[in-house]
Amino acid sequence: VGGTGSSGLKKETHISGFSGTANPFKERICKIFSTSKTKNGSISFEDFLDIFSAFSKSAPVSVKADYAFKIMDFNGNGVLDRQDVVKSITCMTGNDVHNILTDLEMTMIIDMIIEETDMDGDGHINLGEFHHIVSKMPDFPRYYEILRL
User: 42 forms bridges with which residues in the sheet?
Assistant: First the structure.
């Protein structure tokens, strides 16, 4: 049903955002959920349904946390390292376009996030640490929920 004649959905038109605005992680969401062997950025209808299931109001917090972790693990090494946190903050703030944060502010935020979350002191955030911090955030599930229209 995509614009390219393929059976996949185009991410630009179908995964533009869950809250009515452009989602800065839309490309990551498509990449994480895509089962396409061509790696062209498209998702199948089944992938689309998986997205809706994972981000539904009834999805367990642990499922939402697992996918949030995968979405933020840009380099795919199974941990959130400094580069992943930088990219995540940049996506969330639009700092690459709008220069909202100075380099010093960005460094301070990244240092604080890693210091507060990295419980074993190895310099990165593993899935267990991520789940731990998410468990202390009562609003977390709402941020990973597709809003009803």
Answer: 10
Integer Cα distance of 36 and 31 in angstroms: 9
pLDDT confidence of residue 22:
67
What are 105's two structure tokens? 């502010």
If pLDDT is split at 50, 70 and 90, which confidence band does 102 have? Answer: confident
E strands, 24-147, in order: 42-43
Contact assessment for residue 129 and residue 118, using Cβ atoms and an 8 Å cutoff: yes
| CA gap 66, 68 in Å, rounded | 6
* pLDDT at residue 139 is higher than 60: yes
Domain boundaries, the chain: 59-147
CA-CA-CA-CA dihedral for 3, 27, 32, 105, to nearest 10:
-170
- Residue 21: pLDDT band (50, 70, 90) is low
Evaluate whether 148 touches 142 at the Cβ level (below 8 Å): no
Fold of 59-147: Recoverin; domain 1 (1.10.238)
